[in-house]
Amino acid sequence: MGKNRLSGVKGILFDLDGVLFVGKDPIEGAINVVKSVRSKGIVCRFVTNTSTLSISSLQNKLMDLGFEVNENEIISAPQAALLYLKSLNNVTVRLVLADDVKTDFHSLNQRDDNPDYILIGDIGKNWSYELLNSIFSSLTHGSRLIAIHKNRFWQTEQGLQLDIGAFVTGLEYASGLDAMLIGKPSEAFFKMALNSTGLSPEEVIMVGDDIDSDIGGAQQIGLRGVLVRTGKFRKDYFERSSIKPERVIDSVSDLLEDLSI
Ligand SMILES: [Mg+2]
After folding, report:
1. pLDDT for 130-148, tens place per residue?
2. Residue 114 CA to ligand 1 centre (angstroms)
3. Are the beta carbons of 230 and 253 closer than 8 angstroms?
4. Rounded CA separation 91/110 (Å)
5. Ligand 1 center–CA 13 separation, angstroms
6. 233 CA to middle of ligand 1, Å?
7. Residue ranges per structural domain of the chain
């Protein structure tokens, strides 16, 4: 694999969890990589499916970890969901979201009983039969389901953990209805991130640890995908996948050597 594979890069979309940090620890070398690519004039965006934190909490977390990031460089799936719901006229929404994220959704018209839309994000241990069944019941009465993402699993300090994709898929199966997917790997989400850079697809790479959401999503709009072997990366899952990243590196700290800048 030649290093020219990553030539002409003018913009980088960084996934957060598993690429720049895991839990409370930054990935070794990650802070310097972000600093260095910025100093070369490369446009950086931080694109995440994380649905537990509001934009300001997300920025605070990055700053606390040592990353210099502006709020307008962060593109999160909950934020995209909010923009979408605001674009619909006067709809009612049930928010199945973590409390911190809910603070970004105050302007929406909320209703738990048979709303127009039900928005699902990560609520940690709060899933229960009762909750799933009440969502299912609304779906059978005409509510539509929006999933912030459908990730299968994610990497925590304790190892891989079940993500909300399992619950969303279960609800789809039971109701016979498909959820609308907002975050990665949806095309609309990647287009929003790309448009914010003002660059063309050939000039932008996506660096992620999720071969489906990060790499598959990016490639579908013509970006090059760089998979890191940190975070949720698992060798056997990678080898079974039909998605082929343009580049696979041990960690984001190896990115600089692979960029011809
Ligand atoms: Mg990740």
Report:
1. 999 999 999 999 999 999 9
2. 33
3. no
4. 9
5. 12
6. 9
7. 6-49+184-258, 78-181
